[in-house]
Amino acid sequence: MSTANVSTHYISEKVARVRWLPEQLQQSERFITGSWDMDRNFVRLWRLQANQCATASESENVDQMPRCMDKVAMEDDVTGMEFVDKDTLAVSCADGHLSVINVQRAVEEDQLQRKARSERLHCFQRSGESAPCTDISVYGTDIATAGEDGCVNIVSVGNVRQVKRKIEAESMALFSICYISQQELVTANRMGVIRMLDARVATEAQPKTTFMVASQDDKSSNFASALATHPMQQHILLCGSEEGSITVWDLRNLNYPASYLSAHKSPINEIGFHRKDPSKLFTAAEGGEVWMWSENKVLGSELVGQSPWLSGDRVRSLVDVEGVLSNIRKAVNSFDVHGSRLVCGGDTEAVYLVDNIA
Predict the structure, then answer these.
(1) Comparing C-alpha atoms, which of 155, 185, 190 is closest to residue 174?
(2) What mean pLDDT comes out for the span 161-188?
């Protein structure tokens, strides 16, 4: 990754989530941002276009610049954003609602159109006030939302106004949610408890399977601030934590964590694998960093049929780490990788494009 090229583009909005538009056969040229902590928050569609101001004599020229093609005003901070298919985007907000936005690609001007908005999915029982929706996860056409009310709601993208399943998972706020399979979900709460849920059954029939995030110090609390599963091996769950560490669980054996890595010195805001190359993992941290973790192909060849992430204390020697972005000085909240290009954004009111990432 020595030839990676980083460019900074200021957009005057704090970025809560960023996602590339899915493309099957080519490098994506479009991405979506969702803002937070602004007077008015928007979901914006950006398209990379040739930089008209570039000159042949300057070595620091940026070949492509993002141009805002369209935007949709949101009622509150954007808290989650995932594509259901190549043209359909699910967006959660801090007001407890979920929106479905359609992306219309065009030769000249792409467009965004909000197709539906759910009823209020999350609210505090005692006060009746709206509870923020904190995270979403997508599997097929199903969208699962987690909220500060401790509840999980599952809706279908075709009818987000009707809740298919409501699960009262916790008595405290949920921070993260992740589909393992069509039937299984994991959630993480403020106390570091990770809970497995069955999407098919009601609250009373839920399994009692729970496990904890590992901590550097047994006397201090730690919670999972971000969750991700391996794209090819869904039983491998990675938990980015408040202390900046990564705990790896093999969901087939929950007696103890499979691996534990000290990583960032600040909370991990997002964690995820490269979709097409799962030998690469990325983490974004509150301290203004994005790191890439790559499986060491030479040493990893000893592990026949086993993932390096499940190798316990040996994981540090089997995985190489390098900084993709550093010294931002404010939180990097979100990233996404498509092909050889990474986009990320955070509280600096800028998006960062990194070429030749893989």
Answers:
(1) 190
(2) 96
Kindly tell me if the per-residue pLDDT of 183 is higher than 90: yes
Written as one letter, the residue type at 351 is V
- Residues 6 or more apart in contact with residue 306 via CB below 8 angstroms: none
The residue whose two tokens read 């405290």 is 172
For residue 297, the model assigns a pLDDT of 77
Longest dimension (CA), the chain: 68
Of 40, 41, 100, 103, nearest to 70 (Cα)? Answer: 103
Q: Could you identify the residue written with the tokens 């998972």?
A: 169
> What is the pLDDT at residue 53?
73
Report d(CA 41, CA 346) in Å as an integer: 14
Whole-number Å distance between alpha carbons of 227 and 198: 17
β-strand partners of 78: 93
SS3 237: strand
The pLDDT assigned to 70 comes to: 98
Phi-psi region at 224: left, alpha or beta (left = phi > 0; alpha = psi -120 to 50): beta
Global pTM reads 0.94
